[in-house]
Amino acid sequence: MITHETCPLCGTPAIPLEKGGLFRYGHCPLCSGIFMERSSLLDPEAEKRQYLTHNNDVHDTGYRNFVSPLVEIITERENPSHLGLDYGAGTGPVVATMLEEKGYEITLWDPYFIPDASALYRTYDFIFACEVIEHFHNPKESFEHLKSLLNENGVIYCRTTLVPDNQAFSAWGYKNEETHVFFYHEKTIAWIARQILLCDYEIHSRNIISFFRR
Question: Are 133 and 158 in contact (CB under 8 A)?
Fold first, then answer.
């Protein structure tokens, strides 16, 4: 059965999945992405209120430990002379803070909390989006935007949780956050790299993705 909705990443008519609580989802047979149907999406004000309930304290040891694998990958590949962008920094830019502590120059941008337009009128050596890409209502447009902000040999680092192969979607806890609206399989990452970013990619521990040109 094909739903009336098309995948917001690749535009393919999607297959409806079982209802997940209050929300309805579609599965794309082409790029393997799973998305929340438009009728289930929060409006901007409700989404912002939900984000304000998140406790992203830059000094919280537990959260710093949570993002440290992403920080380690960035510091292994980028040096402090490289200019970085925290895309979707939120209310607590922990990764940016940890990188700044190591001497990196990081620009912050967030559509709700740091809507600094000037941050989007320059390009960067690397961009990171930590627990951000699952919030993209329009992932095709968002990844095209990321590409436009990147210098020629730049790298995009993303942290999210990929769709598991060995668990039913209805039982997958990561979907239960109501602002998580698009979920990526490894095949989805490959589609983005090939069709949008025109680059290579690596997946680290199923939750950190780096898109880069060799």
Answer: yes
Residue-wise pLDDT for 139-173, tens only, equals 999 999 999 999 999 999 999 999 999 888 888 99
Query: Of all helices (H) and strands (E), which one includes residue 16?
Result: strand 15-16
Task: Kindly calculate the radius of gyration of the chain based on its CA atoms and give it in whole angstroms.
Answer: 17
Alpha-helical (H) ranges within 86-138 are: 94-100
Is residue 202 within 8 Å of 213, Cβ to Cβ? no
Distances (CA, A) of 167 to 188, 207, 208: 17, 16, 20
Return all residues near 63 (Cβ < 8 A) that are at least 6 apart: 55, 56, 57, 92, 94
Element (H, E) at 50: helix 44-52
Q: What does residue 195 show for φ and ψ, rounded to 5 degrees? A: -100, -25
Angle at 127 (CA atoms; ends 126, 130), nearest 5 degrees: 135
The answer, as to whether pTM is greater than 0.85, is yes
Q: How many Cβ atoms are within 10 Å of 152's Cβ, its own excluded?
A: 7
